[in-house]
Amino acid sequence: MDDEIDGALSEPLIASGSNGTPRPSFMARVLAACGCSSSNEAGKYDLAPYQELYISPKVYKRSVNALRFAVFVDAIAGTIEQPNYPIMVLPGAHADSFPDTGGLGFSGATYMVPMSALLGVAIASMIIGRASDKVGRKPCILFCLYGTVIGCILKFLFRFAFWPYCAFNFLNGLVSASVPVALAYAGDVNETKREKDGEIGVLVGVSMLGSAGGGIIAILMETQGLFVPLLVGSAIVFVAAILNTLYLIEPKDVMASRQREREELGMDNEIEDDDDDQAQTVDKLDYKVFSLILLGALGDNVGSSGLMPLCLSPLAFQTFYTNANPPIMSQVAYKWISVLVALMVVPGTIVSPYIYNKLGLAGGCIMGNVITGIVTIFLLYIALAPASTATFGIFVALLYACFPFTVISQLSTGPMLETTSPPDKRGLAQGVNITVMNLGAAVSPFVLGAISDMAGTPTAIWICIAISFIAALINIPLIWVKGCNIPAKPRTGEKKPLKGEDKEMVEKALRGEWIPAEALEEIQEERYNNKQPYLVVPVRSYEEEKDELKVLRKRAKEDFIYYQRKYNEYLHRYNTLPASERRAFCDQINRSSEVSNQDEVDAANADVGKWFADYLIDSGYHPHTDSTAIKQLIMTSFPVVNKGGAPFHPLNIERILLEYQKGYTRLIEMEGYDEGNEMRIGRVLQSARSVIYMQSI
Questions:
Q1: What's the rounded Cα separation, in Å, for the pair 384 and 386?
Q2: Is 11 helix (H, G, I), strand (E, B) or coil?
Q3: Is the pTM of this model over 0.70?
Q4: What Cα–Cα distance (Å) separates residue 321 from each residue in 312, 333, 374, 375?
Q5: Which residues make beta-bridge pairs with 16?
Q6: Do 177 and 140 contact (CB within 8 A), yes or no?
Q7: Contact, 179 vs 693, CB < 8 A?
Q8: Which of 23, 402, 446, 690 meets the CB 3.0–4.6 Å disulfide criterion with 356?
Q9: Cα–Cα distances in Å, from 347 out to 126, 222, 615, 679?
Q10: What is the pLDDT of residues 507-563, one digit of tens each?
Q11: How buried is residue 64: exposed, middle or buried, by Cβ count under 10 Å (0-12/13-18/19+)?
C-alpha cells in the first residue's frame, strides 16, 4: 500500500495521457491508491458527520438549532407546573389538588415538590455531564429528552397522590441534564472564544425563555386542570427528541485534535498572546480556581434567594395580598409577576457582554453580587412600608428594572468554567456547576423557611444580602485568573504618529514596513491636497513577514475599522458637495491616482501576487494542482469594486465608494468586530460574549 501511495505521489502531474484522453486528477489517484472511492454515485464525497459539522455552515446551523430547541422545550417541561405548586398541595383549593400532603404542612409540601425535582437534576447534572465526556454529547442529550417524555407521562398518571408524584418528579429530575451537556457541546463545535461564549449566550436565552414559557402555559391552562400541562410538555419534548435524533451531530473538538497532532509530530505549539481571539485550551483542570468559581456561584445562588423568591414570596405576597384589606395584588397578578420576571434575563444577557469586556468575567460577577445585595435592600424596605398601590407599583418596577443587572453574576459562571476547563472536562465542569446550583436551590428554601418561621422573613432576607456580599469577596481572587480577568487590548506596538513624525512614517512605508492605516492615509491625504501622486508602497516578501503574520493579523481590526470610517467620510463629503463641484472632486482623485513611474507600480503588483502565492503554499493550499479553484476563491474574497479601474466620475463615484464601504463592513463582520463596540440585540443574541446558563426556579 505504501509503495502504491508513493507511486501516485511521485507521478508527474499531466493533464492527459499519451493518447490525449483525460487522466484522473492528482487527488483521485491518491484516493485510488489508498483504496478509497473518490465519490459516490451522486458525485459527492462521503464525509464523516463531524467533518460536515466543522466545514458546512448549513449543517452546523441545523445541528445547533436542533440543540437550541431541545434546551428550550426541556426548560418548558421543567417549569410547566411551577405556578401550580401552592394550589396542588392545598387540599380543596382545586379539583385536582392532592387530597393530603402526606403529613407535611403547607410550607413543607410547597417546598417538597420542587425540591424533589431539583435533587434529581443535581445528581443528573454531574453524572450525565461527566458521561457525555466519555460516551458523547448526542447520546446523553437524547437520553435526557426521551427520559423527560416518559417522566412527564408518569407524573400525570400518578397525580392523585402527593408522595408518588414527588417520587416520579425526582425520577424525572434524574434525566433533566440537557443544559450542561448542551453547554459542553457549544464548547466543542465552536473554534474561537467569542464563538464559544456566543453560543453559550444563545443557550442561556432560549433556556430562560423556556422557563418563562412553561409558567405561561400553566397559567393559560389552569381551567383545563393543574396537571394537563404535563401532557403538553411531554408532546413538545418528544418533537425535540425526534429532531435531535435526526439532525444533531456528535461533535469532535477539532482544535484540541490539532493541538494533540502538533504535539505528536513534535511541532512547536503556537503560543497565543493574551489578546488573541483564538480560544485558549488548558491542559488540566485547576481545582483551586474551579472550587472558587463554584463557591462564589453557590453563594450568589443562595444570596439571590433573598431577591427571588423571598422578596416576592412570602414578603410581597403577604404585604400586598394576605395582609392588605382589600388585596392590592391578586393571585393572578402574583403568578404573572413571578413567571414573567424570568424574561428579564434577556436584557441582562444583552448588557453582560459590554460589562465583561470592560471588567472581565470575574469583575462582572463581583458587580452582579453587589448589585443583587443593594437591590434586595431597597425591595425589603419598600415591602415593609405601609401597603398602597404606589408602593406596590414601585416594588414591581424596581424588581423588573434591576433584575437584569442582578443576573450578570450568574451569567458569568459558565464562561469562567469554559475558559478554565480542558476539553475532556467540560461536561464534568458544567455538570458539577449545575449540581451545586441545584443543591443550593433545593436546600436553601428549607433553611430560609425555617429561619423565617423562627426569626421572621426580613431576618432571612438580611442573611441573603450578607451572603451576596460574601460571594463578591470570594470572587475577588478570580480577577487575576487568565480568562476571567479583564480582556487585554490588542498590542500593535505602534501608535498614531505625532506631529512632525510624518517623515519617519514615510520612510517606514517606503521600506514596506507596516504603519497604521490612519498614518498612511494622512500621508496620502496630504499628497491629495497638494495635488501630488499617491505614495507607491513597496511590498515586502513573504519570507520577510511570515514570522510577523500573527501581529499583522491582529492589526487588521483597527485598520479595517479606520478604512470603514474613512469611506464614511468620503461618502459624507460626496453627499454634501454641490453637483457642480463633484466633477472637480473626481478629477482631483484621478490626478492623485496617476503614477509617475509605471514600472514601480507594476513591480509592486507583481510582488503582491508573489506574496499571495507564497502565503497560499505555506498555508497548505496547492495552486499548482488546481489554479481554477484558487481563482474562484480570490474572486469570492475580492468582489469587483471598480471594473477595469475606470476613472472616478460623478456618475460612478458614489457606487464605487459604496462598494468599498460594503467590502470593509463585510470584513469587519467576518472578524466579529462591531465598530465602536456597538450593542445590537440581534447581534448579541447570535454572538453574545461571556454569558451562560442560569438555573431558574
A1: 7
A2: coil
A3: no
A4: 11, 10, 25, 22
A5: 22
A6: yes
A7: yes
A8: 690
A9: 29, 29, 44, 12
A10: 665 565 666 666 666 666 666 666 666 666 667 777 877 777 777 777 676 777 777
A11: buried
